[in-house]
């Protein structure tokens, strides 16, 4: 046998994981009155090692996508987003730290302005610019003013506001329901 100190860091991690999985399997099987073979414990340890390697890679990708070099709790919450019970458990441990960020948008003359996320993405053009609209089947172009389109834009804007207020209200009711839920000690750790 080789000395633990002479192993590479990957081998040390794998050996430690095998030892811990063996201890957990032994204790759990003793508690449940079951028996488990050593090859079965080794398979569980290898599966766990491979799954944790994938999780590590995913967490690195999430942090890199957010242009960060540090993995934080938001990355972990993103990793477990498909497991509602685990996600709820993590949310109780670490409350949401998401704050609305300001969005950058381009304005005239190449200048960049910063606006809150709640503003509409494109400003309404209230001027009376004339535009030429020509469809493939038309021979003569049709001229129209942008003032003709303003009522339609306002109607769409009010519909968007109504829809977003309904979604916000629905989210609030779901949040209230989830706060009143009783969570068992058992947590579903399966992630699809």
From TrEMBL:
> In the UniProt record, which is one GO cellular component term?
FANCM-MHF complex
Q: Which UniProt keywords apply?
A: DNA damage, DNA repair, DNA-binding
Q: Name one GO biological process term.
A: DNA repair
Indicate, by first and last residue, each region the UniProt record lists as having compositional bias (Polar residues).
Answer: 87-99
Output the Pfam families linked to this UniProt entry.
Answer: CENP-S
| Example GO molecular function | DNA binding
Spans annotated as Disordered: 87-178
Q: Where is the composition biased (Basic and acidic residues)?
A: 137-178
Spell out the InterPro entries in the cross-references.
CENP-S/Mhf1, Histone-fold
Name the family.
Belongs to the TAF9 family. CENP-S/MHF1 subfamily.
* Annotated protein name in UniProt: Centromere protein S
Q: Which organism is it from?
A: Trichoplusia ni
User: What does the record give as the organism's lineage?
Assistant: Eukaryota, Metazoa, Ecdysozoa, Arthropoda, Hexapoda
Please state the gene responsible for encoding this protein: LOC113493099
